[in-house]
Amino acid sequence: MKWRYSLRWRLPRTPCPGPQELASEVVEAGKPAPESVLSRWVPGAGYAVCVDFLDERQVKRRSDERKAAARRRNLERRVNRIAPLFADEFIRRELDARPAYFQGKTMNMPPKGGESC
In the predicted model, what is the mean pLDDT of residues 62-67? Predict the structure, then answer.
């Protein structure tokens, strides 16, 4: 296993004055932060020394069938909790409005706004 030390901008409500990440280095697990990262760190400047634990295992993805079943189950649970009298009608409308989503298809979403400077 490896660790990745980096110097990243960590003030969420303040605009980033430069690059989001100033420095990074991958080291063996358990090693302290390398001097190449620590030498660029200034206390109170808005950048923080961060550590990520890198793992070689593959990310397990659910099949479309499993995603579809979970989405339908969650929809039924949510609608039955909020409006049990009209649940069948609301569930049918939602399934008709977004058939691809409830068949387990993944929609490509744009990245969230807070990811860049």
Answer: 94
